[in-house]
Amino acid sequence: MEAAMSDPGAIDPLDAELLAAAESQHDEDDRLKPGFVTAVLDAVEAGDAEAARDLVSPLHPADIADLLELTPSDRRADVAAALGDLVGAEVLSELNDYVRDDLIDALRPEQVAEFARELDTDDAVAIIEDMEEADQQAVLDAMDPEDRAAIESALAYPEESAGRLMQRDLVAVPEHMTVGQVIDYLRDHGDLTSDFWEIFVVDPAHKPIGTCQLSWILTCPRSIAMADLMKREQTLIPVDMDQEEVALRFQKYALISAAVVDASGRLVGMITVDDILHIVQEEAGEDILRLSGAGDGDINEPVIDSYKARVRWLLTNLVTALVASTIIGIFEGTIERMVALATLMPIVAGVGGNAGSQTMAVTVRALATNQITASNTRRTIIREIRVAVLNGGTVAAVIGMGVGLVFGNAQLGAVIAAAMLTNIVTAGLAGVAVPLTLDRMGADPAVASSIFVTMITDSMGFFAFLGLATLAGM
Amino acid sequence: MEAAMSDPGAIDPLDAELLAAAESQHDEDDRLKPGFVTAVLDAVEAGDAEAARDLVSPLHPADIADLLELTPSDRRADVAAALGDLVGAEVLSELNDYVRDDLIDALRPEQVAEFARELDTDDAVAIIEDMEEADQQAVLDAMDPEDRAAIESALAYPEESAGRLMQRDLVAVPEHMTVGQVIDYLRDHGDLTSDFWEIFVVDPAHKPIGTCQLSWILTCPRSIAMADLMKREQTLIPVDMDQEEVALRFQKYALISAAVVDASGRLVGMITVDDILHIVQEEAGEDILRLSGAGDGDINEPVIDSYKARVRWLLTNLVTALVASTIIGIFEGTIERMVALATLMPIVAGVGGNAGSQTMAVTVRALATNQITASNTRRTIIREIRVAVLNGGTVAAVIGMGVGLVFGNAQLGAVIAAAMLTNIVTAGLAGVAVPLTLDRMGADPAVASSIFVTMITDSMGFFAFLGLATLAGM
User: Fold this and answer.
1) Which CATH superfamily is domain B2-159 in?
2) Neighbours of B111 (CB within 10 A)
3) Residue B288 and residue A216: Cβ atoms within 8 Å?
4) Do B349 and A346 touch (CB under 8 A)?
5) In what order do the strands lie in the sheet with A208-213?
6) How is chain B split into domains, by residue range?
7) Which of A60, A339, A346 is nearest residue B346 as measured by Cβ atoms?
8) pLDDT tens across A155-214, in order?
9) How many C-beta atoms surround the C-beta of residue B304 within 10 A?
10) Where is the major localization of this protein (chains A, B) (predicted)?
11) Closest residue of B to A199, CA-based?
């Protein structure tokens, strides 16, 4: 966008054809067509860098990033080299973290520093923060003192905090300025920053006291003072706030940008909504991966990292499966007398596990979106138990009658029905209570809930079914 | 925000204390404190509507919406009545769908029409679209012809399409206008709309040919023509595009607003990013609920609706569990000879199921974010199989040695290890292949994947373990 501003005629109307051609490189879901990707890869392979560049040059940086992600990892460096300066700072900032790390490893520190200089602080930090200590230092050493200071101070904030997300380029004015003065000031200092959506009004101590949308400035007389135009009710983001919390504020209050303040309340930066969209997507998607223990769960993650993240979880799952297995062991005598029980018992455990997952998914989502507080916890638990009783009753009736008929054994039908009802109600209770308890304890409910819930539904499923069968004298 | 513009002095500095008081009603996660909610409920119960209003009036509409959501459903109508006009159109548009439906049922059509009139088209449509046909008609009848026409034409678009999301109030100018002329035009027509972030440049046929950020207008000389300032490369949203696709475009191209065009390419509306944040959150969260079959999975959903959504899934799960059960039935003779097999078999099925969930979660997320295309499908499958082989090898070694030692039976250890490796690799393959196949067939991979994957991992777990044990002559 910066380019479009400084040189608005960059895209000539004559290039419309090229743009249309690029448009035809996308399928209906806005993904690059395989044929297009292959054409670029073939051109690079044939050593025809110019042809590759001709194909790629009409693309948006976000699409060039997609192209590199779709390129097999062992050919990415070649493709990036052939595309030359088409792979610019904006492309890097759009790239998947793993793919970017790959590419950056192949660059010299001066090149990375060059890229970082072209970006807003937040995007530059995103690129540099994942680098190894030594590489990071080399890049910082190659930067201008001013840029370096900005990046270093951002890196001083915790990962995933507002301080890392914010950009320092913003427009702040004193409240006595009039609309006309602000417009004149902006016109004289157009090089400050060009991507901003709101102006912050600050007091002499540089503390934000109001926010003003650009549209208000454009629709009001020049004589109005900022103090009379600005909205005083603002959402200030503490610089150390976690990015997930920042995203929830943006969503709740429908923010486009927000002022970031330090511990003393001074304005130190601004976060804009375009950076928040990524975070909302990531955070909401993370829960699904965490619930299954899939770690970062990115298809670009190195195999060995995926292995390490997942196997840890599978080994934990192995331990909890042993608990359920031990419970079965208690009833070996019963199973020996009636081996059909072994055939039926996984049904009770499995359907219970599914019922637990349902309640758990609902609870984890509600917690992630701040929908559950102490005010409605009790109500939510009661609600889930009511749903569980209805579900349990229905499933129990179906399986009970089915087993009774197929095995010609009404008692066996009654036993499996009672066990199923017990397990689904237990699952409902565990599905809501486990995430709530973890959340109260300050743990992430998405990470550990399913270990506990699965252990509970497996164990209860086997215990209730085999225990009731034993009691019934089978 | 509208209020702040037409009456910028509405919030007096003296009210700062009240604002600070409201601030203290929030916990560190920006949720309303239980004590505050109780205080409001108590005031309403005691018939002191004024005290309730004093407590609530400093709150942001989004917080008033939260308050109503935290109120038990049987008391919501009383609380809303006591709060009177504090529960305005903005509060309604922020409310959870289920809670809003509850409240709106208690309102007369004229009141709903009044609320709808105060809102942008998109928010008004969001309120009206969920109403029953007859109520909807009554509300529309009570509206001004102009508002009614706007809402009716929005309702004519499919649910969850761009046409429902867009607002009609936008600023579009011809390309020959200069920056100065645009500013003068806006100042003379300040009543058009006050919440916009970009200006669309249109040709004489009202087709968008460029977009211009307000910040560019404010930082450029008055004499510059819009044609020279605008960015020609724009992301146009077809009016019938699905909202999930719209959200992906906003995210990919970091958009703040986008022009919506009809089939003939004419500008018919604008979508702003604040409405997209909700959708990104919803869509990303939906997958987690769908994977577990929890339906809409909202804690405010009526119990009977949750029951219907979930029991359907549990009954399906019952059928797939029967498949696994039938496989165990084949090997009843083997189990009778060695009942320890019944104790151990759920471990193989359970850990395999977990491995399948991991791969499935990763694949579903990658599909939802358009990360997988025909260009990298094969690579992704191979990647997942490699992870599965590593995971399977590790878990198989651990369980194999453990069982061998505990049971003092090396053959049993070898059997369970081989079965575990087989099942985890099968799980990896199923976890990536099932969602990909469903996606290719045009089905939502999040909805049905886990039914198939669980069936495969359960069946393969029992089959591999009991089958190998039988082959080994146990």
Assistant:
1) MgtE N-terminal domain-like (1.25.60.10)
2) 13
3) no
4) yes
5) A172-174, A198-202, A208-213
6) 2-159, 172-274, 303-471
7) A346
8) 999 988 999 999 888 999 999 999 999 999 888 876 666 788 999 999 999 999 999 999
9) 11
10) membrane
11) B215
